[in-house]
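Quick note —
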Amino acid sequence: MKSGRMRPDLYPELFRVEDNHWWHRHKRLVVHQLISQFAASTGKVIDIGAGTAKILAELKQTGWQATGVDSEPKAISLARRRGVKLILADLAKPLPFDADKFDLILCLDVLEHLENDQQMVREIKRVVKSDGLVIISVPAYPWLFSYWDKMLGHQRRYSKTTLNQLIKASGLTNRYLGFFGFFWLAPAILIRYL
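Predicted structure written out below.
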């Protein structure tokens, strides 16, 4: 699988379930809460690895100027059905944007797909405004890495320490680092090891 890409056959399923599935709804709720807590106002937002662009469509409705990139043509066409235009881009290469362009950058469940996650975080640092906000989500607990991660095209999972080191090495300042969905950990452990 090419670095930076989710399996193409999973995009139609993502589009179908993203509106109502509890996991996706909870993740978007957490992201919206972080935006309302840390972002000064609306402005230009980019979603890197936007997938089918559900969260971008929501942000667009609240006044954000929404842009997204994804490396999969199926994502581009599905995002159009949500009224969001995505740019096709190889996420293993530099982002096709000028420096200091975005007030908000979302990179949700993308870094784990990339061979060179550090290069992407440096690119995020380059295109975010100096007073901008970056929200990154990644799968946690490296010891939970399993066949499911491999099937999804993941290269790794992260600990708080490894993610924090990655963020600091890029020159970004970490204002908050935490877990969401922690109460799902026990069932996940049970399922993975059965």
